[in-house]
From TrEMBL, chain A:
This is Transketolase, subunit A. The keyword Membrane does not apply. Pfam families: Transketolase_N. PANTHER family: TRANSKETOLASE N-TERMINAL SECTION-RELATED. It comes from Desulfatibacillum aliphaticivorans.
TrEMBL record, chain B:
Keywords: Thiamine pyrophosphate. The keyword Electron transport does not apply. PANTHER family: PYRUVATE DEHYDROGENASE E1 COMPONENT, TRANSKETOLASE-LIKE PYRIMIDINE-BINDING DOMAIN-CONTAINING PROTEIN. This is Transketolase, subunit B. Belongs to the transketolase family. Its cofactor is thiamine diphosphate.
Amino acid sequence: MALSTNEIKDLEQHAWQARQDIIDITGWSGGAHIGGGLSVTDILVIMYFKYLNVDPKNPQWEDRDRFIMSKGHAGVAYAPVLARKGYFNFDDLQTFNKFKSPFGMHLDCLKVKGVDVSTGSLGHGLSIAVGLALGARLQKKDWYTYCVLGDGECNEGSVWEAAMSASHFKLNNLVTFVDRNRLMIDGKTEDVMGLEPFADKWKAFGFIVKEVDGHDFNQLAEAIDFAKAEKSGPVVIIANTAKGKGVDFMENEVKWHYGGLDTDLRAQAKASVDKMYGKA
Amino acid sequence: MSEGLTWTVYDADSMTQAEIYGQVLCDLGDQHPEIVGLSADLANSTKIGKFGKKFPERFFNVGIAEQNLFGVAAGLAKSGLTPFVSTMATFVSMRACEQVRTDICYQNLDCKIIATHGGASFGQAGSTHHCTEDIAIMRSFANMTVIVPADGIECANAVKTCIDWPGPVYIRIGRGFEPKFYDDEEYGFQIGKAVTLMEGTDITLICCGVTVLQAMEAAKFLKENDGLSVRVLNIHTIKPIDEEAIIKAVMDTRRLAVFEEHNVMGGLGSAVADVIAASGKGCAFTKVGIPDCYCEVGYPEDLYTHYKLDADGVIETVRQVMQMDFEEDDDWEDEV
């Protein structure tokens, strides 16, 4: 169902806040995966503020939906969204990356409330998601498992082992996203190790594919609603995004896969985000 | 050496031992609906298929995809179930090494792994299917418990006990044709506690897996023929290791020899050496295993003989260790 104007306004406010937060944490921490954090921000926002059936006061509630950030390096985006959802105080993130902080740049589920699965090594998340979805089905639970992959991550063979099993087991309680920002550390995905025809690969592995603009809440909502309702098998939502989305000097720039921000750059970055949301 | 001490792995009587853990898992499955089984196209070879036949809806075969196998197991554990995963030791410890470490151990999940075809038990298959590194790898993972049962009976004990033992457990067995050692399950098996099979004061033999039977045969022979008082410890749990039993053995016998179907680097011998070194006690010590090489091809019995892991080899090693010098100062009792 299409989102209401108020819903979109609300999600955009959360997305603006998340992008501001990502910039602050990148500044505090000395360096973070800001480019891929900004590309996946809108997926995180719509999941946590619209779709996920979770309770921040009871993070281990057994009937909650599960969310797996398989591209675990996006912890810089994931952590502030969890904080704003109410799992912990946003100010705790001032320790990000620092000695004995619960917050490393790849989040640890035993240390950070709200994180269902520890990730960071690429190519692991979808297998764990398959296990969670199988576990839910076996125990006759109606919660959903959501998994977010990076596109570069899809070079990993284990992603395709997992994909093969998700369709073999006809997992219709699993929704997979790919944050298709088309960049990885060494350059463009298609130059480093080509993924195209990407949608066809997923189809060949038995997935139903929805391609959307990953920064358009209406398109994301429509795809998620479709995926949840689809009963024949697993759905993958290929979300076309821009690395560094919202910060003009970072957008689609491969060097901003990982970086730090001094005071001046933070101010510039925040001003750019304000401009995108009409707040400047 | 003496007759009867070189044994045959293909002993029809021991075939039932191979199926013990599959049966035990079936029995446990009745009592514990949360148990699920997984394999990667080795359901029959590993005997977990027995569980799969009894509980088809609780068994998942992911095909030849070991990385996915352990990721899926981690997800099932996170959904509130208790996965028992079985495939060959070499694929657990090396093909899916990172999934076992990162998906299961790092998250400290209740996932129980039964790794088959450990050591040289599939000797004729060649080095791709030997696994003489797994104990070293698995014991380096924080949160992991590592058990190497002596036979099918001890494997049954390990499988039954690990269900109440928190966190990930790695149970390493052979191909399933190994002869039985124990007559029944009532000998006081506890995870983390050595089993003293024979008391002695001259030397302690420390062993796990298939070497337990060989060490006991050798100890009996040495008692009768060399007049030696040999202590035999079955250290089935390599992590957490029974430090007390090892230090006591050092104090009581001052000579120790370790036998294992594993590279001499990083396995039981290394774990025992760590304990001895930290104790500050002097002793004569040797470890016998695969001497940091890729194991030759052959039937396991021939390989055990070649690497001095059969009773003949144990006897030879003991006689050498009895000749070894080590520093024994005057205030022996005041050490530590």
